[in-house]
Amino acid sequence: RLEEFLKQEVNLELSTLPDFEERVIDVSEVEQLMNSINAIPAPCAPVINPQAPNAATGTSLRVCWGLFSDDTVECYQLCYQPVSNERHSDGQAEHTLKVKETYCTITDLLPNTQYEFWVSALNASGISPPSERAVYVTAPSPPIIKNKKIRSCENAALVCWESRDINPVDSYTVEF
Known about the structure:
The chain is mostly beta strands. The protein has a domain at 47-138: Immunoglobulins (Immunoglobulin-like). It is 10% helix and 28% strand. It is built from two helices and twelve strands, in the order ααββββββββββββ. The strands form four sheets. Strands 3, 4, 6, 7 and 8 form a five-stranded antiparallel sheet that branches. Strands 1-2-5 form a three-stranded antiparallel sheet, with no helix packed on it. It has a two-stranded antiparallel ribbon with strand order 9-12.
């Protein structure tokens, strides 16, 4: 039977035409989902530390901060400006530094001056919200001893000095 069937000529034409719809499949949502799986999220806001003892000189400050998450961070953006009593002072320039570590020493500052600092974390996905702002203070300039006014006797000495700082100094320590 098979041999006879194979010898027959078979008509492969369909009597009715198939009715197929042309459908365009939108895979953009799937692509977005796949891309989001491989992407790292933008980091959370860092936490800036308060000023540590002995972290200041008359012209420099060491600022430290940290992250309380396992975020991937490529670098940090440290911003600072002098603290001003005026609300919108145009003379108070804001400075920005890119830093790889979780600390930075800022130099060329004014003595006995308050500076406001804040930091953000950056990675390939974006920038974090800024940290809370922290105020750091540089050390005062050493006073100038007035040599012509020094007086002494057997049991006492009088030493006079003047401050070179614009802002008032809390106290002085005299060593001899």
